[in-house]
Each structure stands twice: as C-alpha cells, then as structure tokens.
Amino acid sequence: PVHLYGQSCEMDEIVSIAKEHKLKIIEDAAQAIGTQYKDGRCAGTIGDIGCFSFFPSKNLGCYGDGGLTVTNNPELAERLKIMRVHGGKPKYYHKVIGGNFRLDALQAAVLNVKLPYLNSWSAQRRKNAELYNKLFIETGLTAGVGGTEFNDENKVLLPKAVYRGFSETANNYHIYNQYTIRVQQRDELRKYLSEKEIGNEIYYPVPFHLQECFSNLNYKQGDFPNAEEACATSLALPIFPELKEEQIKYVVDTIRDFINK
Ligand SMILES: Cc1ncc(COP(=O)(O)O)c(C=O)c1O
What we know:
Layout: H1 11-20, E1 26-28, E2 49-53, E3 67-70, H2 74-84, H3 105-114, H4 118-139, E4 156-157, E5 179-183, H5 186-195, H6 225-233, E6 234-237, H7 245-260
Parallel strand pairs: 1-2
Antiparallel strand pairs: 2-3, 4-5, 5-6
The structure holds pyridoxal-5'-phosphate.
The site of pyridoxal-5'-phosphate has 8 residues, from loops.
C-alpha cells in the first residue's frame, strides 16, 4: 500500500487480504510520516515493513536524499541492515546483494534538528487545509469536501480526510503532504496559477498502466478510467506550514476568478 498525500490506506482490508494469501506487507509511507490510521496506529507500522522518505518535499525533509525503514520483525531488521551496507556481514563477506543505502551523517544531523517540529508542522498543514476547505465552500464552487462528481454545485472537488473524527487521540488523521483538488480545466488552471506565481504540482500526470516502462503489459487508454480521470483533473496547491492566511485566500480567490471567468 502507498499512503498517498498524507493519509492512511484502508489497512484492515489490506491486512486481511495479506493474511488470507500469506503475503508480507511493505507500506510506502513516504508521504505519511506520523499519519495515524483510524485506530491510532501510525502508517508504516501496521504491515511487516514501513518505508519513509526524507526527500526535501516531504513533511520531514532533509537537505538531499534520505529515508528510513521500520520493522518489528528481528529477521527482517537484520536482513535490511545487511542490505544497507552492500549486503556484507561481516564487512566484505557478502550474504545477499545489497547497495549503499546508508543515511548520510550530515542528513541525519539536519533531521535531528527538524524532528521535534514535525508534529507542529503537520498540525499547521491541517489548519491550512481546513482554511482552504472553508474558503472554497464560501466561493460556491463546491458543496463540501469529498465530492466525486463534477456538476454545477461541484466545480472544484476537495480532498476528504477519511479518518477524521474516528478516534479522539488520533489527531494526525491527515498530515497533508499534499492538498490536492480536482478541476476539469486543470491544465489551463495550472497555467493561470503559474502566471500568478502560485506554486502547484500534478501528482500524478500519468497512471501506471500508461507509463512507458510498463508498455510491454499492453494496457491502453481507457483500461482504467478512474485512474485516468484522476490524472487529468488533480492539482496540488501550496500547503506548507508557513503559508499565511492571506496567501491561502489569494490562492482560492485566484482559482475562483479563473473558474468564474
Ligand atoms: C509515495 C512515495 N513513495 C516513494 C517515494 C520515493 O522516495 P525517495 O525519493 O526518498 O526514495 C516518494 C517520493 O517522491 C513518494 O512520494
């Protein structure tokens, strides 16, 4: 499972499928560091191995490349540690094929300083998202969060925080690595926002089945219409913790002006 945008996948179902078929679960929590599932457990700690990224665009970013894997299984932990150092243990006696996957000490030093702020940054991202939701609803361009169909009441579809309110203690139900809206004139809007110097990004422009590297699987346009529509309409807006209220208002006003034009 990939815990996309900052909230958790539906892990109960995934765990039950994995149990039935005796599969291991490797969670991609690159965009979900600290995210809590509906029962309070953190994304990345529910399956057999959890993977995190410290790439600068992540909620906890270092100054280059970095990442982390976690596991509760001592055998997997040992194997991961060996793979991290070219597969050798002791040094130069190679048990498995590994690579250089060490976290650079300089990156670790940066992360050490930033880590204590992570929760407050995620809370600020949530606050920003709440303000976006409120302002978008006030524009009349959307009836509320979580819409899935475009119509006259829903020209902008807002992201829903799926596990919000499931548990009193699970405040990190969404850490908003991305705040992604959907609009039908996405590419034109994107151009307009860029002209107004509003940062934006498409996560992701091409679905898996149409990626060139999978062309040997012979999928074609139309095979996965929901994925294709998501790729054609999704647009991520600025959500970083330091955003100011007036900047969020400027983004929403700019989108309103574009759509009502
Ligand atoms: C969901 C997801 N998985 C994996 C990765 C890869 O992380 P890294 O570049 O640190 O290997 C990223 C980051 O781009 C990501 O967003």
